[in-house]
Design goal:
It is a single chain. By secondary structure, the chain is an alpha/beta fold. It folds into two domains: 161 residues, no CATH class; 160 residues. The chain is built from 13 helices and six strands. The strands form two sheets. Strands 3-4-5-6 form a four-stranded mixed sheet, covered by helices on one side. A two-stranded antiparallel ribbon has the order 1-2. The mean pLDDT is 91.
């Protein structure tokens, strides 16, 4: 134990100090879910130290230390480049973990089961209890059981192991609709919520939509586990739109429901531009079109869209209502 303690302590410092410094700099308290991976890593450090100690008891330490250090790194690192996927999962080689995502408990437990089973088996051999032959059998059973258990658990996993999403502190504001975004966007939320509610009221009054969501929440925090939207609860990616000022426009576009899945570009852009002008989001519409490129065809398309919308705006409110309903209900003609 005296030989292992310094190694384990140093490895724990490597695991814990970087995230601790990051949390301290951002004045953030860790959550229980966020501690899942560090705790698993600490257990893995202990298990690897035990295995290394066992090898050092058999081979000369001058040989065992560099060989194990390189072999351990190579084996774990290169599991990302092999198929099937289970070697990377049982080795603890995680891929990218998105915003709001945390590896599931079973995901964190699988590498612990593999390496921990081997380590516990080795410790069993060292125990000065019972018959040596019995200890060998028990140690082998524990080690093989850990390896097989980890393999059987992760054998059918795809490239991405089981993850859970939504581990983000959210703040909500207003009613009709109530809007919820991650806490880091809290300062922008009140204005965005007011502008969104106003835009939806304008669209409903003009006959462009009947949408009246009770809740609009930022689905960015869901990670890859996207939850479906409903008529009363919309889940939209709003992280960047809230920051760059396009969140209200995103909601406006979402509120316009085209009857057909495929709509010609002139009709779609005309409806979006008309709604953007109505709700005060024309600048955002223009920025979106500029981001898509200004090739000659796009310029010609936008010129036609602008002319059509200007003509529509000169009509009465009742005529504009009939136009937007007709535009949303239009479908491209089928070629014969």
């Amino acid at each position: 134990m005296n030989a292992l303690a310094p190694v384990i302590a140093l490895s724990w410092l490597v695991v814990l100090v970087p995230p601790a410094v990051s949390l301290a700099r951002s004045a953030t308290m860790p959550t229980l879910d966020s501690l899942r991976l560090p705790l698993a890593a600490m257990v893995l450090c202990v298990a690897h130290a035990v295995i290394g100690f066992a090898v050092g008891c058999v081979l000369p330490r001058l040989i065992a230390t560099p060989i194990l250090a390189v072999a351990d790194w190579v084996v774990v690192a290169f599991t990302r480049s092999v198929l099937p996927y289970w070697p990377r999962h049982v080795s603890g080689q995680f891929g990218s973990v998105g915003y709001g995502e945390v590896p599931d408990l079973v995901t964190a437990a699988v590498p612990v089961l593999l390496v921990g089973g081997i380590a516990v088996g080795l410790v069993t051999l060292w125990l000065p209890l019972g018959w040596r032959a019995l200890r060998v059998v028990v140690a082998a059973a524990i080690g093989v059981g850990g390896v097989l258990g980890a393999y059987r658990t992760a054998a059918d996993w795809p490239a991405t192991p089981p993850l859970t999403g939504g581990h983000v502190a959210m703040v909500c504001e207003g009613t009709a609709p109530r809007m919820c975004v991650p806490e880091l966007n809290a300062d922008r939320l009140p204005q965005v919520q007011r502008d969104t509610a106003k835009a939806l009221r304008i669209l409903r009054a003009s006959g462009a939509t009947s949408a009246d969501p009770r809740l609009i929440t930022d689905s960015y925090a869901d990670g890859r586990q996207h939850k479906p939207s409903t008529d009363t609860e919309w889940r939209m990616v709003l992280m960047d739109p809230v920051r760059n000022g396009s969140a209200v426009y995103q909601v406006v576009v979402r509120a316009l429901h085209f009857r057909c899945e495929n709509v010609d570009a002139v009709s779609a852009h005309s409806a979006w531009l008309w709604a953007a002008i109505k709700t005060g989001q024309e600048n955002v519409y223009q920025k979106r079109r500029a981001q898509e490129g200004r090739d000659p065809l796009a310029v010609k398309l936008e010129r036609q869209v602008r002319l059509d919308v200007v003509r529509v705006q000169r009509r009465s409110e009742a005529e504009q209502t009939r136009w937007i309903k007709r535009t949303l209900a239009s479908c491209p003609a089928r070629s014969s």
